[in-house]
Amino acid sequence: MKRILIVGSGDVAARCLPWLTRRFRVFALVRRGAAAASLRAAGAVPVQADLDDRRSLMRLAGLADAVLHFAPPPPQGAGDPRMARLLAALGAGRSLPQGLVYISTTGVYGDCGGALVDETRPCRASTARAQRRVDAERRLRDFGRRSGVRVAILRAPGIYAADRLPLDRLQRGDPVLTAADDVFTNHIHAEDLARLACLALFRAPAGRVYNAADDSDLKMGDYFDAVADAFKLPRPPRLSRGEIGQRLSPLTLSFMSESRRLDNRRLKRELRTVLRYPTIADGLRDAVRRSA
């Protein structure tokens, strides 16, 4: 591989760039010219195109040997037409990419009642947001089977980092669920997710899916308590499920309606990696150090 295309030039992509640009020629899709300068400064070549504009995507045909796809589906609808447009563009070139890594979400599993979940569990997404991800995964796997492109999917849970912590929410005093009503939640540090995506380009077998989660085994309220303690903030108040609905937005409540614990053994075994931040405690120690 000599040329890498990044689709979705956000935080995780930015964390990939230092490693990638030392080894490859990296192209990064941007919707607006304003983002181009920062990408150039990071060593990438900006390519202006829009996943909602089929014609603009044709310049991606044959451009890269591999693709890192970090862009989300649209915010509404039952499927992911952005994925369909991108795959059509990639398939229109004389040469196809050798590999494609997509960051999806563990929300595709739906509510699992706190059960330990591995990658063989069927997708039963319960929110429209997660159903769009299921559609994106299906399109991508079909593309891999038809074209021979080696596709890998990383299902990521809550992504955090020193600059991606719920400090504003804690300072507002937003509540969390009581222990009796609480749900299991899962996390991955943004630096680890970026590294896993790069490793998957080279180490993931075709069509493989991975739970891209750390080793933590926490309920959501305990996570917020841990962040509060690390930054010497008051712990959030605890409310019952019936009470909390009056205080939080429907989107926030939707994350409190699903409970699962993720099995990440396939990730470690097949991608042959050791996480830099294997637990929330490790990530918070680093965050406190950086803030000091």
UniProtKB/TrEMBL annotation:
Coiled-coil segments: none
Gene3D superfamilies, sorted: NAD(P)-binding Rossmann-like Domain
Pfam families membership: Epimerase (PF01370)
InterPro entries: Epimerase_deHydtase (IPR001509), NAD(P)-bd_dom_sf (IPR036291), NAD(P)-dependent_oxidoreduct (IPR051783)
Residue ranges annotated for the NAD-dependent epimerase/dehydratase domain, each copy included: 20-212
GO CC term, one of those recorded: cytoplasm
Gene Ontology terms for molecular function: aldehyde dehydrogenase (NAD+) activity
Superkingdom classification of source: Bacteria
Name this protein carries in UniProt: NAD(P)-dependent oxidoreductase
Organism: Thauera propionica
